[in-house]
């Protein structure tokens, strides 16, 4: 059985924690991000260890390897920062909730300069036969060669464009995600993961992007050369490029949880424009990969949702209200905007269920409200069976039915 985890709202539905719970419970070896990209912020808490996943798959704390599909974006510079933070989290005790030992699939050998710790040799004075555990090597990511690459120039343009909108801002994470995809949509050849071994190609892409942008006036050629070198170096520290065949072979084993980003109400076609994302947030792209791998009949869609609705930043949120909820990992930020809450609108929830068609539900924040909070008292929406009940942020607060 392959689980495809999809958000039913506007993001922040607990997708990352759901992936972590499924990986830990089933002993799954791989997670695959199939839409979205590095703009994601999937919070996972496992035995008190917290990490916000953007580049890596949310099953990493439970020992699963991270894969990124062909329709996603990556940011090599941001990925190195996350790799460092994740390495600290893994070394802190949350790096394998199943066995307490590192999984070689999730943590391939680290680059030579990353450091992997040491063992005290036998016979060390004071502890003759005791060894210090070696911290796990820096985790890596297997990325499809067609995944789009975000550069600092995309980030600059993204933030300039969103700032220029003033009170008419669309809502943005400020990470360059949308600009990366928009460039390809305009018919220009984008920079892809498979290009990252060629420094000249990277530098040429940066120069052409700067020349074509309406928000970059001029750039120094030496600066672009250094940027290209930094991008190539950071990419090599985090990513291993895989082919279509390698990705499909992994899916064909069925040893994977597929991780969606954002939520149905932000879908590029089904959301409320212009407050949407440059991505399909339904299970469609994941199902397509499963069918190509020959395992389309072994798919289960898991719809992630809270007991109440949330949204970050601009855009409609029916029945918005201050529910008195304190969010440790969701606060107001400059780019993502204000964290907003509301009871669920029945029509909105039915709309999401009809388009995602989840087989089961992962219901979180049952410690905040003991049932789904609806805008009209007594109103109900026919939900599929609940697979995961979450009464808190930690993995140990999650219960799998059956």
What does this structure look like?
The chain has 402 residues and is α/β, with parallel strands linked by helices. It has helices spanning 15-26, 76-94, 152-164, 177-185, 199-212, 221-238, 244-252, 284-292, 346-356; strands spanning 2-7, 30-33, 42-46, 49-53, 65-68, 73-74, 141-144, 148-149, 239-242, 257-259, 299-306, 309-312, 339-342, 360-364, 386-390, 398-400. The strands form four sheets. The chain has a ten-stranded mixed beta sheet. A two-stranded antiparallel ribbon has the order 3-4. The model is unreliable at 94-131 (pLDDT under 50). Strand 3 and strand 4 (49-53) form a beta hairpin. The chain has nine helices and 16 strands. It is 28% helix and 17% strand. Helix 2 (76-94) packs parallel to helix 6 and helix 3 packs across helix 4 (177-185). It is globular and about 65 Å long. 47% of the residues are buried.
């Amino acid at each position: 059985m392959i689980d495809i985890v999809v958000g039913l709202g506007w993001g922040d539905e607990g997708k990352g924690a759901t992936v972590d719970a499924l990986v830990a419970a089933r002993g799954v070896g791989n997670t695959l991000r199939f839409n979205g990209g590095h703009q994601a912020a999937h919070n996972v808490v496992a035995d008190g260890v917290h990490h916000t996943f953007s580049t890596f798959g949310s099953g990493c704390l439970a020992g699963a390897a991270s894969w990124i599909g062909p329709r996603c974006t990556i940011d090599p510079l941001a990925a190195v920062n996350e790799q460092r933070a994740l390495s600290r989290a893994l070394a802190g005790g949350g790096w394998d909730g199943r066995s307490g030992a590192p999984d070689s699939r999730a943590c391939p050998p680290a680059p030579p300069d990353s450091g992997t710790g040491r063992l005290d040799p036998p016979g060390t004075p004071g502890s003759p036969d005791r060894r210090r555990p070696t911290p796990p090597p820096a985790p890596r990511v297997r990325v499809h060669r067609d995944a789009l690459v975000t550069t600092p120039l995309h980030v600059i343009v993204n933030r300039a464009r969103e700032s220029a909108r003033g009170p008419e801002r669309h809502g943005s994470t400020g990470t360059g995600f949308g600009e990366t995809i928009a460039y390809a949509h305009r018919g220009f050849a984008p920079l892809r993961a498979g290009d990252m071994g060629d420094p000249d190609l990277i530098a040429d892409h940066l120069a052409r992007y700067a020349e074509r942008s309406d928000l970059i006036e001029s750039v120094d050629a030496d600066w672009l050369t250094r940027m290209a070198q930094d991008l190539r170096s950071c990419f090599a520290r985090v990513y291993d490029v895989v082919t279509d065949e390698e990705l499909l072979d992994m899916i064909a084993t069925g040893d994977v949880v597929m991780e969606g980003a954002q939520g149905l109400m932000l879908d590029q076609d089904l959301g409320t424009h212009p407050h949407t994302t440059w991505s399909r947030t339904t299970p469609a792209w994941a199902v397509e990969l499963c069918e190509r791998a020959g395992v389309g009949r072994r798919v289960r869609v898991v719809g992630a949702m809270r007991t109440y609705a949330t949204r970050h930043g601009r855009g409609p949120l029916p029945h918005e209200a201050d529910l008195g909820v304190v969010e440790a990992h969701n606060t107001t930020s400059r780019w993502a905007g204000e964290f907003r809450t509301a009871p669920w609108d029945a029509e909105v929830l039915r709309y999401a269920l009809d388009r995602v068609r989840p087989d089961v539900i992962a219901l979180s924040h049952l410690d905040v409200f003991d049932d789904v909070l609806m805008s009209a008292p007594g109103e109900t929406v026919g939900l599929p069976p609940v697979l995961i009940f979450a009464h808190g942020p930690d993995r140990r607060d999650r219960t799998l039915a059956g």
